[in-house]
Amino acid sequence: FTPLGTLFGNLISQFLSWLNSISVILVNAIIGFSWLLLIIPGMHAPVAMLFISNFFVTGVDYNLLPCIMTVGWIASATNVAILLKAKDKKDKELASSGLISILLGGVVEPSLYGLYINDKTALLACCTGMCVSSVIMAILKVGAYTFSGSNFMSFLVYLAGGASNALRAAICIAAGMAVAFAIVM
User: Fold this and answer.
1) Biggest CA-to-CA distance, the chain
2) What are the counts of helices (DSSP H) followed by strands (DSSP E) for the chain?
3) Is 94 buried (19+), middle (13-18) or exposed (0-12) by CB count in 10 A?
4) What pTM, to 2 d.p., does this model score?
5) Which one, of 29, 66, 24, lies nearest residue 158 by Cα?
6) How far apart are the first and last CA of the chain?
7) Dihedral sign for Cα atoms in the order 109, 67, 81, 120
8) Mean pLDDT per segment of 10 residues, for the chain of length 185 residues?
9) ∠111-113-119 over CA atoms, to 5°?
């Protein structure tokens, strides 16, 4: 699916580029909600390239990077909720190993393919949490100033923008985590 994903990802990135000139908030909502869905067929890379090229020109990104740097935090909250709620031992094992993978490596795919695809509530929770976080980031103009994995260190991308930027990012991430956790629970 990846070659087709790249083709469709290019079309999506062209659409988002056009839409970005109209509404940054709407673009962030779309990216936030659909990021995990774009990863599944491999459509996320072309979308990422669009915004990463803008980052190299300006040194800061207010769209993609702030949105996708939340995935580790929000997926972690989703996995913790699954750990607390799941009755099935296999789901608990997948949630705990996925949590470690996310926090240490910034790799969400084990949770995405092992849990979220099979549990539509968990997928919806994580997507909705990312959407909420991304929209608030657009409203508060949170910027990402460097690259990082989506692990526990990802918060560092906000620090170069100063304490105010980092505080706004923390608020946005906490809101997204709370939404994802609440939906699963």
Assistant:
1) 49
2) 9, 0
3) buried
4) 0.90
5) 66
6) 33
7) negative
8) 72 82 90 90 76 81 86 95 94 94 91 93 97 96 86 85 94 97 97
9) 80
CA 100, CA 114: separation in Å to the nearest integer? 14
Structure token digits, residue 135 = 């929209």
Helix ranges, 40-162 (H): 44-58, 64-68, 71-85, 89-100, 109-111, 120-140
The DSSP secondary-structure symbol of 158 reads G
Phi, psi angles (nearest 5°) of residue 144: -110, 130
Q: What was the pLDDT predicted at 114?
A: 92
Phi-psi region of 106 (alpha: psi -120 to 50; beta: other; left: phi over 0): left
**18 is written with which tokens?**
């056009």
| Measured CA distances, 1 to 5, 55, 80, 151 (Å) | 6, 28, 31, 26
Closest CA to 62 of 163, 145, 171: 145
> What is the reported pLDDT for 5?
67
Burial class (CB in 10 A: 0-12, 13-18, 19+), 76: buried
Block residue for tokens 């695809």: 117
d(CA 166, CA 156): 8
